[in-house]
Amino acid sequence: MIFLEKENLYQYVHTMITSSTNLPKYMSISSVKVADLLGIPVSEVENGLHKLVMEGRLQTSKLDKPPYCEIYLLP
Predict the structure, then answer these.
(1) How remote is the C-alpha of 46 from its chain's centroid?
(2) Global confidence as pTM
(3) Based on the number of CB atoms within 10 Å of its own CB, is 48 exposed (0-12), middle (13-18) or buried (19 or more)?
(4) pLDDT the model gives residue 2
């Protein structure tokens, strides 16, 4: 089983957010899609994202308009 290092996940997500066309910069991140792209279990991505939010390296919010998905922002 391949394990994803938290720093590698952060760099990947950081690049996704900064390349986003949304202003301010934010992105809805599908943990299933990221896991599929990186070839790792979904639980690894979800745990990694949660740890990054808890450390304050990422912020999370919900859109107030449809589709009401969870988004990730850089602090």
Answers:
(1) 8
(2) 0.81
(3) buried
(4) 44
